[in-house]
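Contributing: when you submit paired examples, paste them exactly as shown. First protein:
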Amino acid sequence: MQRARLPLLGLRAFEATARHLSVSKAASELCVTPGAVSQQVKLLEDTVGVPLLRRKGRSVELTDAGQVLRPALTQAFQTIELTLNAIARRPRHDTLKLCLLPTLAEKWLMPRLSRFHGAHPEVDIQIMTSFRTIQFEAEDVDMASFTGKDLPTGLEGVRLFDDEFLPVCNPALLQHYKRLAAPRDLARTTLLYSVRRMDDWQRWLALAGAADLRPQRSLSFENSSLAIQAAVDGLGVAVVQRAYVTDLLKAGILVAPFDLVARSENGYYLVWSAARAASPTFRSFLQWVLKEAGRNAA
């Protein structure tokens, strides 16, 4: 096959799927939908003329052809990655690269970022979003987000905010349902949530003494940002992290029908490798983040 006709998207999709033996994990790594991964793999199979994967429910297996192709692709992508990292590690001028959870980037960082740019107009920031764990020794990333009880071994970091969550909704929704005086009144509403935080409603309702509540209906979303937007649009009542909706609550765009806030032991961190912390640009951004984290806690 001629190099100009190589199906690069399909090769990436197949290599990630074959490595994880999971379409959903490959989609998470590549920051696309599982459907997009399956489509690219199918196009690759059509191009080479042989099946590469066997689908078995939610898992996949490699065909004989897939077993031949997978190690060659993995080695090739590793070579490309190492070469690009070596190039990217050359001195960069006033550029900071962040890889964050999508909702953290959209709902926590972005509303604040103008304050940093106002104080440091010379600094360029590149923001990527992903749910995967960043390997700092192999990737050209300065800072990344992390959620957990404690910092990962070998990394430094700052705790941005605690994992606190509560129900929120559009003010007009309260008028529609006339009253939401008690948590059990939520049974008449549509409950909104992120599929990545599927236990939040159960935990909040248990804390509110309504663990057996069954809602009229529910809607799930890929991430908390979509659940928040659905609440803003009046689709129902969302359970979301308080730090993501503080400004929306202050502006009256959303309201919290109940004062009860649930908490876990986890925190949301910004983490980095010590080797990344030497530049003045990094230190300036870190000082600003510390100030913003303190502002968020106040």
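Second protein:
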Amino acid sequence: MSAKILITGATGTIGKSLVKQLQASKVDFIAGTRDVNKAQTTLNLMEDQCVKFDFTDEKSFERALENVDRVFILGPPLTFNLDRILKSFVDYLNQKSINRVVYLSAFGNESLGGDLAFHAIMESYLKERNFKYTILQPSFFSQNFKNYEYENLVERGITFNVAGDGKVGFVDTEDVAKVAVKALTEPGHSGKTYQLTGPELFSYHDAAHLLSDVLNKKIVYPNPSEEEYRGALKAGGAPDFIADYMIPIFGMIKTGKVGYLTDDIEGVIGKKPTDLKTVLERDFGK
């Protein structure tokens, strides 16, 4: 039986795009997921293309890695100290001599500290061991507007966060997945770190103007204070840790930590990255 790729985080935003592109390329893979039935339905997969997998359950590792020689590592979202969850899996890969890994990190992560320093910790952890690693550091996703702000945009006419007046190069998750496919299936990417951004810098004020055009309605960015942001999340029923997590993340935009562009996407896939307006038009059906 030929070796295949294990895709963790397969039902998430990046995971779905990656699975779709591997299917189109007829690459042999298996989707690791906590809910196999959901993955089969959501991703249109056959039973033998899914396996039960959970980073917190070491008993799930062995079966998930049968006939696997490459792994895409994408940890669960909104998890403080994520490195504590991922390290046992990485150690298991090392023990099994599965050393080809592509790790989904984040653009600007080196500026985060404390219980949000997990990407920097995991990048170092992989580099210090016998892995043929590729690290992907995507910028903020263009799809976040639809995935996380749809109700705000459509019902309230706002995009709401604490990014201040900072700018960021929003990136299309489809482009991130294309880079991941290349890193997983072609030689020449071991030991590389790719910073993945879109082609243009936008503030959330700029994004609101684009959204106004795409949605054909006035969208504004009220640029709330941290206190206003916390209050709005709490009023909406979100637990307190969401604000504790997201304020430093958006703070990377506010303080200019992610306010620059790279040409890594074009360098890997041979095409310029997709611009924000194209993604918004695709997501909102224009």
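If you have annotations for the second protein, write them as plain sentences, like these:
The mean pLDDT is 96.
The radius of gyration is 19 Å.
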